Amino acid sequence: MKPLLIGTIAVLSVVILGSASGCGEGANGSMNSGAKAPDADASHNTEMTAADARQEMGASAPGNENTRVRITTSFGDILVRLSDATPMHRDNFIKLTNEGFYDGLLFHRVINGFMIQGGDPDSKGAAPNRRLGNGGPGYTVEAEFVDSLVHLKGALAAARKGDAMNPARASSGSQFYIVQGKPVPPQMLLDLENQRNRGKDSVDFFTYTDEQIAAFQALGGTPHLDGSYTVFGYVTEGLSIVDSIAAVQVDRVSRPLKDVIMNVEVVKE
């Protein structure tokens, strides 16, 4: 399976925010970035705080959002806060983490300027020439699309199989990606809105908020995945680590030449 992968300009100096494509379980469609979507991806030098940004944008879900996980790699730690707006994905990620499912797995698919992807159990101890991306826990998770949770740099999202074999866009049970992305001009967001709203009644139109547009300009991201892949958290610390992993040398199928191993734990607060 090929799984894959947030106010105004005036407040961006305050909202310093830390705010997919496939391996075997992701979307197979072409993306504006030139990379394939996760069948399960604009670097910026400024480290931003995702929690503050989401609050500015009203993107925080109801609830406390107290669950954070730490992804430890040889490049450093990535701290992610899971969203209460996507409870099935949140709870599934916590369950697998507490079971040690992710420990020793690889970021097996890395595309600079797009995303870093991991969570395939077949990647643990995998030989260098082994093609990865088809593994999972044996189940999928129902899609949880939330308009306030967009594919900003640092978004944690679920990879999935492509639309042809997965019309409900259910997520992989374990494979995930963290968005790195590229700069996003406002016109791109307007074009994407028009694409998503084509054929819909006006009451169902999707519109990016002014805050989201400003955040995409400041951080970058992969907005062409919005509404197609479930975002269920954001990096709060470690965007520079995402950049470092995204910059590693990879082979022709985007697997790092030197294994990038993860260990994941729930952070007690």
Task: Explain how this protein is built.
By secondary structure, the protein is α+β, with helices and mostly antiparallel strands. It has a single domain, classed as Cyclophilin. An eight-stranded antiparallel β-sheet has the order 3-4-8-6-9-2-1-10. A two-stranded antiparallel sheet has the order 5-7. A hairpin with a 3-residue loop joins strand 3 and strand 4. The longest helix is centred in the middle third of the chain and has 12 residues.
Outline:
By secondary structure, this protein is an alpha+beta fold. The protein contains five helices and ten strands, in the order αββαββββββααβαβ.
Q: Strand count, sense and closure of the main sheet? A: 8 strands, antiparallel
Give the number of helices. Answer: 5
| Secondary structure: number of strands | 10
Order of helices and strands: HEEHEEEEEEHHEHE
- Oligomeric state, counting identical vs distinct chains: single chain
- CATH topology group: Cyclophilin
Range of helix content:
10-25%
- Which strands sit side by side, in order, in the main sheet? 3-4-8-6-9-2-1-10
CATH homologous superfamily heading: Cyclophilin-like
Rg is 17 Å
Q: Detail the poorly predicted runs.
A: 5-24, 26-33, 41-64
- Mean model confidence by pLDDT: 82
Strand percentage, roughly?
A: 15-25%
- Principal-axes geometry comes out as globular
* Tally of distinct domains: 1
Give the end-to-end Cα distance, rounded to a whole number of Å. Answer: 35 Å
Report the CATH C-level class.
Mainly Beta
Which structural class is indicated by helix and strand composition? alpha+beta
Question: Architecture in CATH?
Answer: Beta Barrel
